[in-house]
Specification:
By secondary structure, the protein is of the alpha/beta class. The chain is built from 27 helices and 18 strands. The strands form 5 sheets. Strands 1, 2, 11, 13, 15, 16, 17 and 18 form an 8-stranded parallel β-sheet that branches. It has a 4-stranded antiparallel β-sheet with strand order 3-4-6-5, sandwiched between helices. It has a two-stranded antiparallel sheet with strand order 7-10. Strand 8 (180-183) and strand 9 (189-193) form a beta hairpin. The protein starts with a helix and ends with a helix.
Length: 725
């Protein structure tokens, strides 16, 4: 250790300085997170209405109940042809012209004046024909079409009791059925077909119905209008007409929750929407994806968020698969939906919940209409969130925190110093080559930052995510080997356990520094709002595993032992390459490969492996009783493996050290991985790691004792067999 400090004083100073820079950066982020402590709830009107229709009460009664729970905002979607036809009793209908013109005498079904006007205007199979048998309904749609859309895109033909409206569609806007086959008498495919069944024009917005806005206002609740906008029908004129309709509500909406493909006016840019939002201090929402990774893509939203200095909130929409989690995992009531909302707010920086009512488990159509279930769920949620100092009220907006270029550069240079120290520890490259590597690495980083400045934070974070676990690996392999060389196999178990615990704490501390160094460069608002995410999660987990095999070879050698432990020599690699492959080696490699593959696909934001029900129940139990849930793989598997690594090394047991060593690497990388989830507040990462370490020590002690008992029984059995022979 003294030699390390003496020979590498400057490199260690650079590394320590970069760590201090990361702590300053992290301190600024923590200051931002401590102020972001209130959440809000917006109800989905249409789904509340659908639930009311299945209950004994009307929608007004239900809105009053939710208001009594403290919820004061209702998301009210603008009407389109689908909602008018399916959600109201208004006498209106719409059909795509392809379907209408399939009948030979279709023209006979319409007034002669309309047919003449239609031919004069021109039409094709992609157009949408709207028919209304009520003047009031016709005027509602026709006026909206005139106000919002370009005159050359529609044809209006009023009648005495209603009228006709034709919207000009294109093949791009048309919706088709899935391909299907016609079969012959031998049940063999004859021809494949698909059919025109509808059009995106069915979803064009026409405004809010007065009858619905009156219900919400009479309930004393605030309307959050939701407008769905679509490409080609979303110009500046459309945006201004939408804003005019908002102004008629008499109150500026607190939030803008964009619907459809884009913000209003996107065909001509974001200026109209941005000006409306900034002039009225409206907070725009970023709707979290169904996979809970990043936000759904809506054109113009990210542009507005960036242009307003990240004056935005993340929104958790209760998707249909979440609605169905009633009595899920065997819980009574809506416990798992409550858990889902809790995690969204606490762990993912969500500050606005767009709530849709609960549905029966595995039933997409039957709502839970017991109001007590909702009262219990929201009351429990508020109580649990209060323990994290998060209060129910107006959604808080995160400050626009940005990590400077120089902070990122300082941190990545520190990682270069760490890389040089690691290389020197294995290869003893000498002072001259150490500085040559450091200078070349620094120049390479400066060049990279010059050419690709937008990737500066990604490079800094990735470098830290790899380098610090590698330093932890060097420590645990070096120290466990030294313990094994210094101690006799008969040493007391208490001494082995105590050394294992100390080594575990040191290894986790190094990885925790790596977690801070990984999180710091990507702690800007765009990452915390998940507009951008850290890339390279799986590679950052894989490289330390590969590095462990190299370090193990350097310290333990291959079969014949090591004359110079800690130095990777040519004959180490040669011995591995010249190995005669045995069947057991292939089987072991297959097992380790399978475990490694499962570990990698379970790692990261977008794992395709579902967590088992039993594991989820166990996770929820920990979540209910602890400030932050420790990671199962850390305290049940990886951290105890460090104690077992020390035990099996001291006992001179073959093969076991490499297996437990690989398992321990998973723990070191997992600690860093915790801090790659930038949306998660930092204090949770520290608390989670602390719990994992504490429980890992306890589980590790039990594991070592049980392993020792099994080993002693094995030795006893071995002696008995040798006597009998």
């Amino acid at each position: 250790m003294k030699l390390l400090l003496k020979e590498n004083k400057i490199l260690l100073f650079i590394l320590i300085l970069s760590i201090l820079v990361s702590f300053v950066t992290i301190g600024g982020r923590i200051g931002v997170e401590t102020k972001n402590k209130s959440y809000d709830i917006v109800l989905d009107y249409n789904e509340i209405k659908a639930m009311a229709d299945q209950s004994e009460h009307d929608v007004s009664w239900w809105l009053k109940q939710f208001k009594d729970m403290g919820i004061t905002k209702v998301g009210l979607a603008e009407e389109n042809m689908v909602s008018l036809m399916e959600g109201t009793d208004l006498p209106i209908n719409a059909t795509i012209m392809d379907i209408i013109t399939r009948e030979a005498d279709w023209e006979a079904n319409y007034p002669e004046a309309f047919i003449q006007g239609l031919y004069d205007h021109g039409f094709d199979r992609y157009d949408l024909l709207i028919e209304s048998a009520s003047k009031e309904t016709f005027d509602f749609v026709a006026n909206a079409v005139k106000e919002r859309y370009q005159p050359d895109r529609y044809f209006i033909s009023p009648a005495e009791d209603g009228g006709f409206i034709v919207l000009d569609g294109t093949a791009k806007e048309t919706l088709y059925s899935e391909k299907y086959k016609y079969l012959n008498s031998m049940k063999k495919g004859f021809v494949e077909k698909d059919e025109i069944v509808s059009s995106k024009l069915m979803y064009l917005n026409f405004g809010l119905l007065d009858s619905k806005t009156k219900i919400v206002k009479d309930a004393g609740m605030e309307i959050i209008p939701r407008t769905a906008s679509y490409d080609g029908w979303n110009d500046t004129n459309y945006a201004k007409a939408v804003i005019a309709s908002y102004q008629e509500l008499g109150k500026v909406p607190e939030y803008m929750i964009v619907g459809g493909e884009s913000v209003i006016g996107w065909d001509d840019g974001i200026d109209v929407a941005k000006d409306y939002i900034t002039e009225n201090n409206i907070t725009i929402g970023l709707i979290e994806n169904t996979t809970q990774l990043q936000n759904i893509l809506q054109y113009g939203v990210n542009d507005i968020v960036k242009s307003t200095g990240y004056d935005a909130v993340r929104i958790f929409s209760v998707w249909d698969y979440i609605q169905n989690r009633y009595q899920y995992y065997g819980y009574a009531g809506a416990k798992e939906i409550e858990n889902t909302l809790f995690r969204a707010v606490v762990e993912r920086n969500v500050r606005l919940i767009y709530f849709k009512p609960i549905k029966e488990y595995k039933d997409q159509h039957v709502y839970v209409t017991d109001v007590e279930e909702y009262k219990t769920m929201f009351s429990n949620l508020e109580t649990r969130l209060a323990k994290h100092d998060i209060k129910f009220g107006q959604a808080s907006v995160m400050e626009n925190y940005q990590v400077s270029f120089w902070e990122k550069l300082a941190m990545v240079i520190g990682c270069i110093a760490a890389a040089v120290l690691i290389i020197d520890a294995l290869l003893a490259i000498g002072k001259k080559y150490k500085w040559l590597l450091f200078i070349l690495g620094t120049l390479g980083v400066i060049g990279f930052y010059t050419v690709l400045p937008g990737y500066a934070e990604h490079l800094a974070a990735f470098a830290a995510a790899v380098m610090f676990p590698c330093m932890g690996i060097l420590l645990i392999v070096k120290q466990s080997k030294e313990f094994g060389d210094m101690e006799e196999p008969s040493v007391k178990l208490v001494k082995i356990i105590s050394k294992g615990i100390i080594l575990l704490i040191c290894g986790v501390a190094i990885s925790l520094l790596g977690g801070v160094m990984t999180a710091a460069p990507i702690s800007s608002a765009n990452f915390m709002l998940e507009i951008d995410i850290f890339r390279g999660v799986k590679l950052a987990q894989l490289l330390p595993l590969a590095f462990y095999l190299v370090v193990y070879l350097a310290y333990y050698g291959y079969r014949t032992g090591k004359k110079n432990p800690g130095r990777l020599e040519f004959h180490d690699i040669r011995d591995v390459l010249y190995t005669d492959i045995k069947v057991w080696m292939i089987l072991l490699a297959m097992v380790l490969g399978g475990v490694g593959y499962y570990y990698l696909i379970r790692t990261g934001h977008d794992s395709s492996i579902e967590v088992s029900n039993l594991e989820m129940i166990f996770r929820n139990m920990l979540e209910d009783h602890l400030t932050a849930r420790p990671r199962n793989k850390e305290f049940l598997f990886a951290f105890p493996s460090i104690l077992l690594l020390v035990y099996t090394t001291v006992k001179r047991l073959p093969l076991w050290p490499i297996i437990f060593g690989l398992a321990s690497v998973i723990g070191l990388t997992s600690v860093v991985n915790t801090f790659m989830h930038i949306r998660t507040p930092l204090y949770l990462g520290f608390v989670r790691t602390g719990y994992s370490l504490l429980f890992g020590i306890l589980v590790g002690i039990v594991a070592v004792v049980l392993f020792d008992v099994a080993y002693q029984l094995y030795k006893k059995l071995e002696r008995q067999i040798s006597k009998n022979v």
